[in-house]
Amino acid sequence: MNSLNDHSALKHPVTRLTEALTILEQRGWFAGRGADKQKRFASIARLKHYDAGEAVYLMGDVPTGIFGLVTGSLDCSFPRSDGEDYVMHRAGAGFWVGDLALLSEKPRLISIYAAEPTTLVQLPIQELSNLVREDPSLYADFYQLTYENFEHTFRIVTNLSMQSAKKRVADKLLFELNAWPQDEGWLVISQPDLARMTAISLPTLQRVIRRFAEDGLIVKAYGRIKVADPDGLLAICQQDGA
């Protein structure tokens, strides 16, 4: 069994909604809602399971609610003009998505795929709309979620503006690390995936990763990368020049 599967096996499947909500209460947007709001959202929540590569929703879809990531990981992607999907971000547990389409009542702007076997909690659109209609103050909670997700988007754009390959890779690893706070520094991202996310050729990415590993900044494994020295990566990002 390869190391990626070994790692995945450590995460036991979440089969009960109560367990899923308990996980979400510990991290991310849901953790900051307060007990009363958490209880109201929990009353409409549904547990969803997705296989690796399965679409949660696609760009242009009519919104069906918002989704919170319990276990596994999600790829957030946007179609390029050449027809290929650009994966902007690989999200870890505690990530919520779908808020923008909910607030705007417009079709989905991005596509979301399960990057591995993944468990989500869905707050369905109709039930969620009823809650907000009964208590309009809940809009503030979803605007906060939108703010957080826009902050992620700006970080992604800023990363792509970095001309130095090693700075771009170091910055991306730190950004993704923030999405995986409970996994002891492990990111479920292969080198080909990381090359696509940073818009760097695979040979260049491999050279950078090899150097980072030699310097003790990261640990390489099959389909995964461990950030061993976040401060060292941050120092690279802050260096002058290339």
From TrEMBL:
GO CC, alphabetical: cytosol
InterPro entries attached to this UniProt entry: cNMP-bd_dom, cNMP-bd_dom_sf, Env_Response_Regulators, HTH_CRP, RmlC-like_jellyroll, WH-like_DNA-bd_sf, WH_DNA-bd_sf
Gene3D superfamilies hit by this protein: Jelly Rolls, Winged helix-like DNA-binding domain superfamily/Winged helix DNA-binding domain
GO molecular function terms noted in the UniProt entry: DNA binding; DNA-binding transcription factor activity
Record's keyword terms, sorted: DNA-binding, Transcription, Transcription regulation
Entries under PROSITE patterns matching the protein: CNMP_BINDING_3
Domain Cyclic nucleotide-binding: 29-149
CDD domains to which the protein is assigned, alphabetical: CAP_ED (cd00038)
Record-given protein name: cAMP-activated global transcriptional regulator CRP
Organism (species): Methyloligella halotolerans
